[in-house]
Design a protein that fits this description.
266 residues, alpha/beta, Rossmann fold, 2 domains, 5 helices
């Protein structure tokens, strides 16, 4: 899955490009790879958790293409001061970007630009709770936000609920990290929502906050409060639209519902 193209990037504006060198690759789900790069020009990537980069490449017919990926910087790499860049890439059968990443060898480079986007935590937020809702690679920005959320929980006692939608337990991207974070942060609640297969008893995700169904169906259990909550929606466009409408009906003001849609690109 990749982000929808950003409207803020005008074709007439010259966007700085930089080389990214692949340093590691690991599968975090049957069809999703976590890729770690370093900037091969030796420069850092000053980013805000929640932003994304674009990867530029050529299609088989010679035409230019680009795909957008949220930066999945981990807790120890907040803002990636050392130039390290991490992304999650869904492998789509027949996809041009999939072919690019599958063939990319360790040490090889791709052309990138960014960071872009405003799907970030706002410094002047005065809410008492964040509702983070994501499906597929749409949880990637939330992984990057963990250091900021930790700080806000400590400084102003904010509560955070992460609803992560997937079909099966092995498709819960970064689920082990979210679960570990929840266990050490009482104000952070991690709720996997599984539509097809529940965890086996005794496994990592077999706990009381696992739900059967879609994230939008579990939403009412959290009793969203227009006076205290800010919601973030990221992932499948149908989920984002359905959850957006549900939150509007509950009464959350539109500025308090922040959205980003992902689509599958060939």
């Amino acid at each position: 899955m990749a982000l929808l193209p950003p409207h803020s990037v005008a074709k007439t504006v010259a966007i700085p490009h930089f080389p990214l060198k692949l340093v590691s690759r690991r599968m975090i789900a049957p069809t999703v790879a976590h890729l770690a790069f370093t900037r091969d020009d030796g420069q850092p990537l000053a980013c805000i958790p929640g932003q994304f980069i674009q990867i530029h490449f050529q299609l088989a017919d010679g035409s230019d293409a680009r795909r957008s990926y949220s930066i999945a910087v981990g807790r120890a790499l907040d803002a990636a001061p050392d130039g390290r860049v991490e992304i999650a890439v869904s492998y789509v059968p027949g996809g041009a970007a999939t072919a690019l990443f599958e063939a990319l060898e360790l040490g090889a480079c791709v052309n990138a630009s960014g960071p872009f986007g405003r799907f970030c935590l706002f410094p002047n937020d005065a809410n008492r709770r964040y509702l983070l809702i994501g499906t597929g690679t749409g949880v990637t920005p939330y992984r990057a936000m963990l250091p900021q959320l930790e700080q806000q929980m400590e400084q102003r006692g904010v509560e955070v609920v992460l609803l992560q939608g997937a079909r099966t337990p092995n498709e819960l991207l970064y689920g082990d990290e979210f679960r570990a974070f929840a266990e050490t942060h009482p104000n952070f609640r991690y709720m996997p929502c599984l539509s097809r297969e529940l965890p086996v008893e005794g496994s990592l995700h077999a706990h009381t906050d696992v739900r059967h169904g879609y994230v939008q169906n579990v939403l009412t259990e959290l009793t969203p409060d227009p006076s205290t909550d800010i919601a973030y929606l990221c992932g499948n466009p149908d989920m984002v639209d359905a959850t957006f409408e549900a939150l509007k009906e509950i009464g959350l003001p539109i500025p308090m519902i922040r959205r980003e849609k992902y689509v599958s690109n060939k």
